């Protein structure tokens, strides 16, 4: 396990393009200055020991030294001590709709991306809680098993797309049943399922699945994302807009928020229904309710001690600086002889 101690120093990398630009401008100015003395070829013959390639080599060495210096300042650290700690928290499984209707753009940039942004903000607010992610459309799949690794959660979330589930549709019952399996067999009132969808369900078993979950003490909350008026579903080809989704009769498909279905699922699951808005999806409001749930104590293995590794990168940086300082702009006679020998 590794971590970066001073990540803000990465901003120093922004100086590299500036350094390159200044070097190019300096070389152009130098050539213009030499041309004022006469023809470039004639001037180069007058200075046979001046190397034309070494200045560029010295500049490259300087850039590499600067890069390693920045990495050294960031200070990569390696986890050296793994300990098992006791934590108290809740188990949260987010069931995220990835059907084609989630591409609708009544939320910017679209329903799915807006939901993903809200989930990322929720992850930032978690402390000891465990989180899992399930994606569903016509079927459901575990995108992220329940974990306290919030960095991994964000990484897995980035890869969520409407192509994640090949079978289209919105079968909420499959997502609830898979979430229940993810919790394991242990019962308790520390478990919560959050369903984020536009509610266009093609499933008559969602309420029954919510009822079965409630009997085991699992709370189900629902978030409806979309507008009741409905909007068309955009179609893209090679990331270029190519009109809107059509049905088999050639009519434009309109996707509408189905609040009634989501309210019934939440009510059956002893939770609440929240209608998402452009400003707030509703996950942070649900987190306040989840924090009031009974907490569970569980074991978690974490790195409690890290060793600095900045010394390696600083040493390499100094090595390149020393090499650069030893180079002069004079041609190396031994290099010239070797080059001629090879010819």
Head-to-tail CA distance between termini: 51 Å
How many helical elements? 11
Instruction: Please tell me the total number of domains.
Output: 2
Taken as a percent bin, the fraction of beta residues is 15-25%
Order of helices and strands: EHHHEEHEEHHEHEEEEEHEHEHH
Described by strand count, sense and barrel closure, the largest sheet is: 6 strands, mixed
Give the overall shape, derived from the CA principal axes. elongated
User: What is the name of the CATH class of the largest domain?
Assistant: Alpha Beta
Low-pLDDT residue intervals, each spanning 5 or more residues? none
Query: What do the pLDDT scores average to?
Result: 83
Structural class: alpha/beta
What name goes with the CATH superfamily of the largest domain? von Willebrand factor, type A domain
Radius of gyration: 30 Å
- Main sheet strand line-up: 5-4-3-6-7-12
């Amino acid at each position: 396990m590794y971590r970066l101690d001073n990540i803000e120093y990465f901003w120093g990398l922004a100086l590299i393009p500036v350094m390159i630009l200044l070097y190019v401008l300096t070389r152009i100015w130098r050539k213009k200055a030499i041309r004022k003395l006469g023809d470039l070829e004639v001037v180069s013959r007058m200075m046979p020991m001046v190397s034309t390639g070494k200045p560029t080599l010295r500049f490259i060495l300087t850039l590499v030294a600067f890069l390693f210096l920045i990495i050294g300042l960031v200070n990569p650290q390696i986890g050296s001590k793994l300990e098992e700690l006791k934590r108290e928290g809740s188990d949260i499984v987010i069931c995220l709709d990835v059907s084609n209707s989630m591409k609708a753009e009544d939320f910017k940039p679209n329903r799915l991306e807006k939901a993903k942004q809200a989930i990322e903000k929720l992850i930032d607010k978690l402390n000891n809680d465990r989180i899992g992610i399930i994606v569903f459309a016509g079927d459901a799949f575990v995108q992220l098993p329940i974990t306290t690794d919030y960095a991994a959660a964000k990484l897995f979330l980035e890869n969520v797309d409407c192509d994640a589930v090949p079978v289209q549709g919105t079968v909420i019952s499959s997502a609830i049943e898979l979430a229940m399996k993810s919790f394991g067999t242990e019962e308790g009132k520390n478990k919560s399922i959050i369903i984020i969808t536009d509610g266009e369900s093609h499933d008559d078993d969602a309420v029954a699945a919510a009822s079965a979950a409630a009997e085991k003490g699992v709370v189900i909350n629902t978030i409806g994302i979309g507008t009741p008026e409905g909007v068309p579903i955009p179609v893209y080809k090679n990331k270029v807009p190519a009109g809107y989704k059509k049905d088999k009769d050639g009519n434009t498909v309109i996707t509408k928020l189905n609040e009634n279905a989501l309210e019934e699922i939440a009510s059956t699951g002893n939770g609440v229904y929240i209608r998402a808005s452009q400003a707030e999806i509703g996950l942070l409001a649900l987190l306040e309710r989840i924090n009031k749930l009974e907490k569970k104590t569980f074991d978690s293995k974490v790195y409690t001690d890290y060793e600095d590794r900045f010394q390696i990168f600083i040493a390499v940086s100094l090595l390149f600086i020393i090499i650069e300082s030893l180079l002069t702009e004079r041609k190396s006679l031994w290099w010239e002889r070797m080059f001629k020998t090879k010819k």
